[in-house]
Specification:
11 helices, single chain, 2 domains, alpha+beta, seven-stranded antiparallel beta sheet, 13 strands
C-alpha cells in the first residue's frame, strides 16, 4: 500500500494575528466562549452515544447559528476520534476559548460566517455575531506576515467561487486567526526548489532523531545519515529553540538528499494506524519526550518540508517495518532506526513499481 503525500495532507494551516476593533473585542470573546461551550456540549452528547442530530440541537441552543453549530459538531467528532485513537476519554472541560467556521467555495467570499476580505495593507476580517440583530458583524484586521501572498490569492479565488477556506480563531494574550489553505496553493508560494534526480530515500522519524537512507534504482545503499536532536526533548528545554534546532538538522538531510540526486522520498504511513498510539513509551521519561515533541507533528512537518524542497513524497504501509529493520540491521550492521528507514525505502520502491505497472496495464 502506497499513498501520495499530497492526498494525505490536502490542506495546510496558515496563522496570522487578528486585531478586532476596540468595540468588538468583548463581543468576539463572548462568541468564542459560547462556541467552546457548544463544542463541549456536543462532545458530551456524542460521547453518550446519541446521534449527530442531537449534538447539533445541543450546539444550536447555545450559538443560534447553523454554520457555527455544524462546525462545533464536526470539531466534537474530531475530539472523540482523537480520544479513541489514544484509548482515552475526551477532555470536555472548557480550558481554552476558540471559534471555528467551516467554509466552501459555494459560500460568498469562501466562508459564510468568517470572511477574509482583501485590503490595501492588511486583510479585513468580518465575523458573524448571531446574538445581535442590529449589529451582526464583528470587524477587524489581520496580518499573516510572509504568508500574505497566499491569503491574498486564496481570498481572490474565494471571491470568484473557485475555492473556500475554513477558519479558526484563538486567543492567547492576542487574537490569532488560522486559515486552512489547499496544499497546492501553499506550495506554489513556499516551494524552495525542485528535485531533479533518479534516486530514492527512506526516512525514519522519531522524537529525538531522524534517519535517512539513500538508495539507487536497484535498492543498493548509496548513503546513510542520522540527524540527532535528542537534547531538545529533555525536560525544561526551551520549546522555540528546540524547534529551530530540529528544523536546522532535518534541513541538512534534505540538502544531502538533493546532493545525491534523490527524486523520491518514502515515509512510514502512520496516519493509517487506528486504535493505537502513534507514539508509545513504557516509562515516564519516554512519555515526557513524546508529550513535548509528538512524533505525528514532527512527521507532518518533515513530509511538508520534503514537498517544499520539490521531492515526490510517498507514504508506505508501516506494518512490521521495525521488525524487518531489525533483521536487516543485524545483517548489514545498521542500527534499528537506520535499518527501518532502509526497509521503508525498499518497500516504497517495490510498491511504486507495482503501482506504475498497474497503471500501464
Amino acid at each position: 500500500m502506497i499513498r501520495n503525500a499530497l492526498d494525505v495532507i490536502p490542506f495546510v494551516t496558515v496563522k496570522g494575528i487578528l486585531i478586532p476593533s476596540e468595540n468588538d473585542k468583548e463581543r468576539l470573546l463572548l462568541l468564542m466562549r459560547r462556541f467552546a461551550w457548544a463544542c463541549r456540549r456536543a462532545t458530551t452528547v456524542l460521547w453518550k452515544g446519541f446521534e449527530s442530530k442531537e449534538a447539533y440541537k445541543s450546539a444550536y441552543e447555545v450559538l443560534k447559528d447553523y454554520v457555527y453549530a455544524e462546525s462545533a459538531v464536526k470539531h466534537a467528532k474530531l475530539i472523540l476520534k482523537g480520544a479513541k485513537v489514544n484509548d482515552g476519554k475526551p477532555y470536555r472541560k472548557q480550558k481554552r476559548i476558540y471559534l471555528i467556521s467551516r467554509g466552501n467555495r459555494w459560500e460568498k467570499q469562501g466562508n459564510r460566517n468568517v470572511k477574509i476580505l482583501r485590503g490595501n495593507r492588511f486583510f479585513r476580517i468580518r465575523v458573524k455575531y448571531p446574538f445581535d440583530e442590529k449589529n451582526k458583524w464583528i470587524e477587524g484586521t489581520a496580518d499573516f506576515g510572509v504568508f500574505n501572498p497566499i491569503i491574498e490569492e486564496l481570498a481572490m479565488l474565494a471571491e470568484q467561487n473557485l475555492d473556500g477556506y475554513s477558519v479558526k480563531i484563538t486567543f492567547s494574550g492576542n487574537f490569532y486567526v488560522h486559515v486552512s489553505v489547499p496544499i497546492e496553493l501553499y506550495l506554489k508560494h513556499t516551494k524552495i526548489g525542485s528535485a531533479e534526480g533518479f534516486r530514492f530515500a527512506g526516512f525514519d522519524v522519531n522524537s529525538d532523531r531522524c534517519s535517512v537512507v539513500i538508495l539507487d534504482e536497484n535498492g543498493g545503499i548509496v548513503c546513510r545519515k542520522t540527524a540527532w536532536f535528542s537534547q531538545v526533548v529533555q525536560h525544561g528545554y526551551p520549546r522555540e529553540r528546540a524547534w529551530n534546532e530540529i528544523v536546522s538538522e532535518v534541513d541538512k538531510l534534505f540538502r544531502i538528499a538533493k546532493g545525491y540526486s534523490v527524486k523520491t522520498l518514502f515515509f512510514e504511513d502512520l496516519f493509517i494506524i487506528n486504535g493505537k498510539r502513534v507514539v508509545s513509551g513504557s516509562n515516564a521519561k519516554s512519555r515526557r519526550k513524546c508529550s513535548r515533541f509528538m512524533k505525528s507533528k514532527l512527521l507532518n512537518w518533515t513530509i511538508l518540508r520534503g514537498l517544499k524542497y520539490g521531492f515526490d513524497v510517498y507514504l508506505v504501509n508501516p506494518a512490521k517495518t521495525s521488525v524487518a529493520g531489525e533483521v536487516i540491521g543485524r545483517r548489514l550492521g545498521l542500527d534499528k532506526h537506520t535499518a527501518s528507514a532502509y526497509a521503508t525505502a525498499l518497500r516504497g520502491i517495490n510498491a511504486l513499481k507495482c503501482l506504475q505497472t498497474s497503471i500501464k496495464t
